[in-house]
Amino acid sequence: MPIETESIRQQGSGVLRGSIAALLVQRWLGPGAALGALLLTLPALGVGWVADDHYQRWVLRQSPVYAGLRPPPADMFRFVDGNPRRTERMKEIGLVPWWTSPTMRVAFWRPLTVLTHVVDQKLWPGRPAIMHAHNLCWFGLLLLSVALLYRQILGRTVAAGLAIVLYAVDYTHAVPAAWLANRSTLLAALFGVLAIYAHDQWRRCGRRLAAVLGPLLLAMALLSAEAGIATVAYVLAYALTLDRSTWQSKAATILPYVLVVFLWRTLWSWQGYGVAEFDYVYLDPAAHPFRFCGMVFLRAPILLLSQLAMPPAEAHVVLGPHGALWVCLAGLAVLLLLVFLLWSLLRSTAAARFWAIGMVLATIPCCATIPLTRHLMFISIGAMGLLGQYLAMALGGGRWPNVSLLRRLVEGMLVGLLLLVHLLLAPLGLLLLSRYPVGPSQFLASLHAIPCTTALHGSQDLIIVNHPLPGVVLSC
User: Fold this and answer.
1) Contact, 309 vs 419, CB < 8 A?
2) Enclosing domain of residue 430
């Protein structure tokens, strides 16, 4: 039986009644929502190769161009390895900007993701549309897994149905679904969701096989992308909210996941992976714990605001040098309002606390890099579960007679805003960003443009000091 249950009959006097409520509890809602999201992301089939795709294609094809600098296919996510001689050579030919630190390291260990790209290169090289279809297949599997998790925790309820729909059409999923280089996020989220599902099967149903599958799936998530570490956030949230055993038993259930993370990080560092001298984009929490804590306080509200209410996390970039601070303050204000309005739900419902705590904890690892909407895949799991429960309660009719007129007006406006953002603007954003995951085509064309050389004489050389897109030589 699910942790939390609700009946359609209990919502009969509200907005969600009759056919709408019946639709949200149908068995086929998960596959139907996944199909709808895949239709919205079909424009991704025409995206082709963009940005990092060119570097990774150069690596996978084992191109003879600059072969001495090219890492093996297994290291397609090793961009800069911290070797000063290699970095200087990369600067000479334009693979990285001239101001790059000689000891910069940007190298990620993602063997499972690499395997999927190798399959692309072996089976359909030179056919990006099929590669993007491959991406969408992983996206579809992720949506089905999330639907399974919502139904597992919330049962066949209106709340679960709303959460399924909200997650499926969330615009923050567009870039991972439509950008080949970001496939790693899809894989990490898929295995992470399955790990959370297995953990619930173990703790609630006593299935011993699930006790083994949970940590194993976490390992697969981590071997797909570092983002997979956010899985532990939901395992910890589960122990704090839904697990009804003793505290000693709860700690014991978390230990296998901690050991997996420790082993993964040890192997990661031993093989020379990691980030260094690139702190304005990637900050290693283990190397700079105090700076990372400061980034959490600044970036977490930006990410949560982007997930719950918009604007996109990238908004802080266009607002000038103090943009991050202003968006952070706006995020804090919105979060305080939501906590106030959702307090009764959080206090009375363990599942709501699970989604909320998991969402907040999943935000922490995302703060190791600059706030971007494509980093919200794990955060949105808890966010949509929580919003699904809140909207089911608010639209169910049973809540409104028990609150004051002022609060009723405030909540009414909030519900209207949430419906506008997540059921109208979000699907439109998903559709648009699926076609332009890293920006409009005109913008990309301007980045690839090489200055006119017709005025040069045969004995003259053109030296480009600051090309807007380092590494453009690989896509020419």
Assistant:
1) no
2) 8-440
- Most confident option among 19-28, 90-99, 266-275, 463-472: 266-275
In a domain, 393, yes or no: yes
**Which residues are CB-contacts of 292 (< 8 A; sequence separation ≥ 6)?**
283, 284, 285, 367, 368
Distance CA 4, CA 244 (A): 14
Strand partners, 369: 282
Other residues' Cβ atoms within 10 Å of the Cβ of residue 443 = 11
Query: Looking at the domain assignment, is residue 456 inside a domain?
Result: no
CA gap 358, 394 in Å, rounded: 22
State the distance between the two ends of the chain, measured CA to CA, in whole angstroms.
Answer: 58
Q: Please state the rounded mean pLDDT for residues 265-283.
A: 89
Instruction: Give the whole-angstrom CA distance, residue 80 versus residue 465.
Output: 20
Examine residue 43 and say whether the peptide bond preceding it is cis (omega within 30 degrees of 0). Answer: no
Average pLDDT, the chain: 86
Question: Given this model, what pLDDT does residue 12 score?
Answer: 38
**Sequence-ordered alpha helix ranges (H) in 13-170:** 19-24, 29-40, 52-60, 84-93, 111-123, 128-154, 158-168
DSSP conformation class of 451 = P
Strands 78-81, 274-276: pairing is: unpaired
What gap in Å lies between CA 124 and CA 134, rounded to an integer?
11
117 CB-side CA count, 13 A: 28
> What is the pTM for the complete model shown?
0.89
Which pLDDT belongs to residue 398? 54
Q: Tally the domains of the chain.
A: 1
> For position 3, what pLDDT does the model report?
47
Structure tokens at 264: 């993964």
- Two structure tokens written together for 351: 């599942």
Residue 469 lies in a domain: no
Work out the pLDDT band at 465, boundaries 50, 70, 90.
Answer: low
DSSP-derived 3-state class of residue 274:
strand
